[in-house]
Amino acid sequence: MKKVYIVDDDKDIVDSISIVLKSAGYEVKFQNNEENLIENVISFNPNIIILDVIFPENDTAGFEMSRKLKSDNRTKNIPILMLSAVNEKGIAGFTFSNRDRDESFLPVEEFVEKPIHPDELLDKVAKMIK
Prior knowledge:
With 130 residues, this protein is of the alpha/beta class. It is 37% helix and 18% strand. The two termini are 13 Å apart.
C-alpha cells in the first residue's frame, strides 16, 4: 500500500484529502505543524508528502519545511506536492506557481492551488509516486 503524509493545519482540508486518498487505497497520516517533521516523516516512510504553505505561527512554514525535507539525506527523495490557497487568498504579499519551483525558493516537485478537485489530486499523487 502506498503512503501519503499530509502536513496542513486546516483540519477540514486534511479530512477531505484523507477521505479521497483513503478511498483510492492509500494509507494516510498527517500532522498539523512543523514539530518533529523529519522524524515523523522518517517514521511513517511515505511515498509522497502533501504540504501546505502557511501555518498560523509562521506564514512561510511550508517553504521552510520543504527546504528542510529536501536538505536531509533521509527525506530528500520523497516527492512533495505543495497545496496552498496563498495566491487565491492574496495573503502572502506575492504570488508563486509551478514555474517558481527550484532548489532554494520552492524545492517541491509540484505546486497546486487549493481547492483541488479530487480527481486531479489522485492523478497528481499517482503520477508523482511512480
